[in-house]
Amino acid sequence: MRILRFAAVGVTVALALTACGQGSATKEAAAPDGKAVVRYMNFSSNDGHEKDLTAIVNAFQTANPDITVQVETVPYADYFTKLQTAVAGGTAADAFELNYENFVTYAKNGSLAELKDVDGAVYKPSLYSAFSSDGKQYGVPESFSNVVLFYNKTLFKQAGVAAPTADWTWKDEQAAATKLTNKATKTWGDYQPVSYNEFYKVLAQNGGEFLNADRTAATFNSPQGVEAANFLVGKVGKTMPTEADGAGTPDFDSKLFKSGKLAMWHTGIWMFSALADAKFDWDVVVEPGNTKKASAMFANGLVVNAASKNATAAQKWITYLSSSDETTKTRLASSWELPPIADESKLKSYLDQPKPANRAAVFTALESPVLPPVIERQQEMQDAVTQELTAAAAGRKTVEKALADAQTKVNGLLKK
């Protein structure tokens, strides 16, 4: 563990930052007289972005000399256990970071303060609305990533196949994938994991719903769900590799794409930097849909503890951390996820990078997002759906049987 010290408006403030993979932060520094103290707990700056967060804190305290921010950074693996204990014990920080899935739980259980008079217009609308519940705003978006369709432009050109466009449907994608698959050279047209994360997305692309409105029952075993699952499973062995080919093993998909043996790949924008040295031309486009567009969106948000005695100052801090020019500049310079701001002119340094050329697709995808379904027993639900879909992909069950069994399991989890 290490302590970083910096001067803020003539006062030295101690920020306790957790070293890579180590325990939680040291105890708080004493608050200077006349200042409001905001304790802030986070996970996303751990292991590489501690200095970036420090720079933002410095700028905030310079602009708000009446507020001192005390940071506690906790590794992601330990974060939610520590947070749950702190909230239950009444010792949670004034403000803290939540991913979307955990936000849903904390917003429902009364742990979060409602935010007042936030300028929601500074954020991308879909990101801002993600952190509301029952018509009230309980958080602001902090950062996001999403999934797009990567494609190997060189393979498309060599095969004489027209490149993907934003108007493509599933039918267009699979027609191209069929032409681009060459099993003799072990070149595949498409790769989309047969998993929970991909299923809830293609279900949305087909107009289906994973859960009912009050999240008391699973509803994905529907005609739309069966068609969506068949779309995923039907690719296996035809236009995309099987488990026997190595599909599903660590880094299989990224290695396949980088080797020039994969024409299309459904994956996240976090892979941009990993493909910087690819020896072929590639680009991205918003993923095809069937009856509608739906792009997977993953977001982290910032919230205020309902029990905080410094809620006003805490809200001021989280809105600065989420939307200020200083934060935007720092995030873009250090590739620390993408800021959620609406003003794309401030994202020019990101959009102007040469690869991929169509970075605008990242923001177009935010216009039709689908967020992960959330229940209390989240991981068990995800595992159950993936397990059943995997069985169908391997031919051990029909798609219809796998989906029915998956829904029975999820409904069982909802009732426990």
Look at the structure and name the CATH superfamily of the largest domain: Periplasmic binding protein-like II
Low-confidence stretches: 1-30
Number of domains: 2
Q: How much helix, percentage-wise, in residues?
A: 25-40%
- Estimated structural class: alpha/beta
CATH hierarchy class name of the largest domain: Alpha Beta
Principal-axis shape equals globular
Mean pLDDT equals 92
How many β-strands, per DSSP? 12
Brief digest:
It contains 15 helices and twelve strands.
Task: Provide an overview of this structure.
Mean pLDDT is about 90; it is low at about 1-30. It is built from 15 helices and 12 strands. Helix 7 crosses helix 8 and helix 14 runs antiparallel to helix 15 (about 400-415). Strands 3, 4, 5, 8, 9, 10, 11 and 12 form an 8-stranded mixed beta sheet that branches. A two-stranded antiparallel ribbon has the order 1-2. With about 425 residues, the protein is of the alpha/beta class. A hairpin with a 2-residue loop joins strand 1 and strand 2 (about 10-15). It folds into 2 domains: about 35-145 and about 300-350, D-Maltodextrin-Binding Protein, domain 2 (3-Layer(aba) Sandwich), CATH 3.40.190; about 145-295 and about 370-415, 3-Layer(aba) Sandwich (D-Maltodextrin-Binding Protein, domain 2), CATH 3.40.190. It is globular.
Primary descriptors:
416 residues; eight-stranded mixed β-sheet; alpha/beta; D-Maltodextrin-Binding Protein, domain 2; two-stranded antiparallel sheet
